[in-house]
TrEMBL record:
Keywords: Metal-binding. CDD domains: VOC_Bs_YwkD_like. The keyword Metal-binding applies. This is Glyoxylase I family protein. It comes from the Bacteria.
Length: 126
């Protein structure tokens, strides 16, 4: 029945700042951007491989209780072929990235960085 993840939704506290981060820093392609007057809300659809990220704005969204152990979505992970190259690419764009670690279960390398709302984002080497 279930085939794949279609999208992940993110609510930004500062829509323009997050839009710049995801489109300029992470270089995700814009599929569509819509402003919904009745909700005072933007919805930005971004392509990431065969999936999408939906970036939303809402008036005065509540803060995330804690990270990353708050109930709900723990983090969003991006697969990369070369983690050192990806870390260097982000660093050149001013994004602070944690030291690379090794997953003791899969023996794969990974690391974390944050979006403008401190949403934990992961790089995971193929």
């Amino acid at each position: 029945m279930l085939k794949r993840i279609h999208h992940t939704a993110i609510i930004a506290s500062d829509y323009e700042k997050s839009k710049e981060f995801y489109t300029e820093i992470l270089e995700l392609k814009v599929i569509n951007e819509t402003y919904r007057e009745e909700r005072k809300s933007y919805k930005l659809d971004l392509a990431i491989g065969s999936a999408q990220i939906e970036l939303f704005s809402f008036p005065d969204p509540p803060k995330r209780p804690s990270m990353p152990e708050a109930r709900g979505l723990r983090h969003l992970c991006f697969e990369v072929n070369d983690i050192e190259k990806a870390v260097s690419w982000l660093g050149k764009k001013g994004v602070e990235v944690e030291p690379i670690r090794v997953d003791p279960i899969t023996d794969k390398r990974f690391t974390f960085f944050k979006d403008p709302d401190d949403l934990p984002l992961e790089l995971y080497e193929r």
